[in-house]
Each structure stands twice: as C-alpha cells, then as structure tokens.
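PROTEIN DESIGN WORKSHEET
SECTION A - STRUCTURE
LENGTH: 163
TOKENS:
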C-alpha cells in the first residue's frame, strides 16, 4: 500500500468510526449506558446525573439512590408537568426498572440529584458514583462531566436510544 492510500484509509476509518462514549456498565441483567453530568458554578449545592438503564432480565429491579464522595447524597428524582407547572420530587421508593425494558434518566424527566455538593463539578472530570439497586445491589458508575448547559449525548452516542 502506498503512502497516499494509507493516509486515505486512515482518514476514512476516523471519519466513519463510532463516536467515543463512556464505558457501559453491566450488573447482572442491568446495563448502565451513557452516564453523564454537567459542570456546576462555584457555590452550587446540587447537580444532576443522567443515564439509561436497560434491564434484559425477566424480573424488574429498582434504582433506589446511591452515594458519591463529592456529594452528601445521591437521590432519584422526577420532573413532571402538573397543571402547567413543572414540579420536581424525590422518588423515595425508587425508580422501577421494568423487566425486558429500560428507563431513561434525562433533563426534565427522571434524573439523579447529587445533593450537598462538597465542591464544584468541572467540565472534563469523571465523577465516581455508586448506584444502589434493590436486586443488583451497589454498582460503580463513572459519570463524565460536560459543560454547564450541555444538552447531553446525541442519539447516536446512545446507541440509537432516544433521550
């Protein structure tokens, strides 16, 4: 192969390569896909975490919360419209993950709330979070931090799943 052909082959390989994304995490029948968070301004007390949880098993599971060294608590929350007003509430009983189904945690919907932040979150860092499930137990997940106001991964970055 001549030099120009090698250069063209390398360019085409890069042009059509799948975009890089965070490592998917397997925990029994559950797969955690595309976890991410946003940077926070100095002095912020809360941040959010987003991800997709796929359950390939015959039994449902429940995301009950978690823990992280950068936050006082990791809670499961829901944002929903109520009579034209967006309201947020903690899901104290957790978030059910249906058998043979999936749940998307995204802005303006289900999400993780990192409360009692001990420091600002910076774009480019990776947050270490331990999620807790009723059946799968504790699962370590890395959350890459995107820019403040980032809309999150594109559909292609999520393996075709819609946000």
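SECTION B - SEQUENCE
RESIDUE ASSIGNMENT:
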């Amino acid at each position: 192969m001549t030099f120009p052909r090698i250069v063209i082959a390398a360019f085409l390989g890069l042009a059509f390569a799948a975009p890089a994304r965070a490592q998917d995490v397997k925990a029994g029948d559950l797969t955690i896909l595309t976890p991410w968070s946003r940077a926070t301004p100095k002095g912020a007390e809360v941040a959010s975490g987003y991800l997709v949880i796929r359950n390939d098993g015959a039994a449902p599971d429940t995301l009950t919360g978690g823990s992280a060294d950068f936050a006082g608590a990791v809670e499961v929350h829901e944002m929903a419209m109520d009579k034209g007003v967006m309201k947020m509430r903690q899901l104290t009983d957790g978030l059910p993950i249906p058998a043979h189904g999936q749940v998307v945690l995204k802005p303006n919907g289900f999400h993780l709330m990192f409360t009692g932040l001990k420091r600002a979150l910076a774009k480019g860092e990776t947050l270490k979070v331990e999620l807790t499930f009723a059946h799968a137990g504790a699962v370590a997940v890395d959350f890459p931090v995107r820019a403040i106001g980032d809309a999150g991964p594109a559909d292609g970055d999520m393996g075709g799943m819609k946000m």
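SECTION C - NOTES
The chain has one domain: 21-149.
DSSP finds one helix and eleven strands in the chain.
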